[in-house]
Amino acid sequence: MDNNKRKFVDKFTMFAAKLGNEIHLRSLRDAFATMMPLYILAGLAVLLNNTVFTWIFSGDTLANVQYWGTVIANGTLNVSGLLIAAMAGYYMAQNRDFKNPLSAALVSMATLVVMMPNTVNVQDVNGNLVDVAGVLPFANLGTGAMFAGIIIGLLSTEVFVKVSSIKKLQVNLGDNIPPAVGSSFNVLIPVIIVMSLFAIVSALLFNITGMNLINLITTFIQEPLRHISTGLWGCIILYSLGNMLWFFGIHQSVIYSSILEPLLIINITENIAAFNAGQEIPNIINVSQVATFGLIGGSGSTICLLIATFIIGRSLVTKNVAKLAIAPGIFNINEPVIFGYPIVYNISLIIPFVLVPAMGIFISYMATVTGFMDPCVVQIPWTTPPLLSAFLATAGDYRAVIVQAVIIILGILIYIPFVRINDKVLAKQAELENSKMQEE
């Protein structure tokens, strides 16, 4: 039985490792990680614009001050689709060991623009809808185009890297020229081929269907996938599976960062944009909501485990670990708990480790749906301490702090019986080990 269990763990570990190392998912994870400072800046700008500034200023002065936050939103959220295409292309090329990843980023960004419609329907200052040619509206560059940016960035880079590998298409000017010039000419023909190819696709789509690839991706891929994965139960299931991986010593980012988080980030960017525009908030489930209410103290909401250990823990080992882990745990860093308590291969604690975060997501969702608290509209740094994180993520809603406090209390109550079980298991293991040493 032990051998069968070991084989299962080994196979599962290998599968999870391969999934997390899959080149497209890895490239996407790296791309979003690179862009994270922009999203946090956008969230803070929107928070200041719509809360702090409104407490201090009014009238024309308020409008003038809020211009600061507006231009930050334009340079972050409103071009996020274009930026993610470039980042996805860059890291995809880098992970393919392509020597000129910057050219891949350039092609990805330009290809996304190639796939955009040349004529768009916009609203004029009087509220009338008019067709305008030769413009790139934020609707096609920003949050609404993020999924299209991801797909086009990865796809165009795959084609570009393969075409660039054909030696007959490479233009070599020799060694006596600047490296930047040599690199540019080396990919000249591949750039022309790839851009022309996607332009043909764009032209065919427009002339045959009257649509463009961005609309098609958004309508038939992004929205269905996002509603399934970032719906309440889809999110809880995927997030719980990610936390379950910790039992096998595998980082939950294999599932969370690669599959779920990109869609959750799209949701929060839409929320930030809507909040900034004074519109209805579209997404309850988003990256801030999950992190704030399902990642309290780190994966497994282990701040609850540490507090439970201080309250009823009897094992000197786990109490000492808790003392060491509480300071980083306040900032959601819980590797000392994962590997020191431990959570890895500890069957005694895996149930609350998976259950408490799922409960937090569910309770915060229901509190938002019922109108008890506001939805999360600010992407905050993941190291923001509990209670403060709830206040900031909801743009200053004190009721969210109450909800998070309730989740922490319930989490402690859930962890308590399992802490007792874990203490008994540790005591029994110590007893057996002592007996074995005496026999020897």
From TrEMBL:
Signal peptide: none annotated. The lineage of its organism: Bacteria, Bacillati, Bacillota, Erysipelotrichia, Erysipelotrichales. It comes from Amedibacterium intestinale. Its main location: membrane. InterPro entries: PTS_EIIC, PTS_EIIC_3, PTS_IIC_cello, PTS_Sugar-EIIC/EIIB. The phosphoenolpyruvate-dependent sugar phosphotransferase system (PTS), a major carbohydrate active -transport system, catalyzes the phosphorylation of incoming sugar substrates concomitant with their translocation across the cell membrane. This is Permease IIC component. One of its GO terms (biological process) is carbohydrate derivative transport. PANTHER family: PERMEASE IIC COMPONENT, PTHR33989. It comes from the Bacteria. Residues 8-418 form the PTS EIIC type-3 domain. It is a multi-pass membrane protein.
